Amino acid sequence: AKELSNEGKCYQKQVEELNSKAADWIYRVNNVHSPPNEIDLHGLYVREAIPRVEQAVQSAILRGDSKIHLVVGQGMHSPDGVAKLRPAIAELMATYTLAAHVDPHNVGVLIVQLNESRGSEKQLDMDEIQRRLEGEDEQCIIM
């Protein structure tokens, strides 16, 4: 039983490595012609999309962009047609108190305003946003 358990763990590790490579390939192919302030997350699971969104927001802040477009899709290919990426990414942006809204011209795109905070909360400057994205703020926890 121990031998089979170890063999199963080995296969599980291989599966995870191949899934990671597939996600990298999908992301790269989807974004080869995208402008710097837009990323296409089609084909990724939420757990694969979140670190890419965080990196894209950080890069946009460093470039001085005022907004970034996140192509999350409409959820048409999700089970029962229920979107998974849009709510997860919107929640992530709320965690960082970044204003995000659906593009009025394309419901499959979230536009994140990098120079505005949500609602009546105190507006964050770019240094504060970057500090939170880099994980220096222990209050920002992503589960």
Automatic annotation (TrEMBL):
SMART domains per record: SMR
Organism expressing this protein natively: Serendipita vermifera MAFF 305830
Annotated ranges, domain Smr: 39-115
Pfam families named in the record: DUF1771, Smr
InterPro entries cross-referenced by the UniProt entry: DUF1771, Smr_dom, Smr_dom_sf, Smr_domain_protein
Record's protein name: Smr domain-containing protein
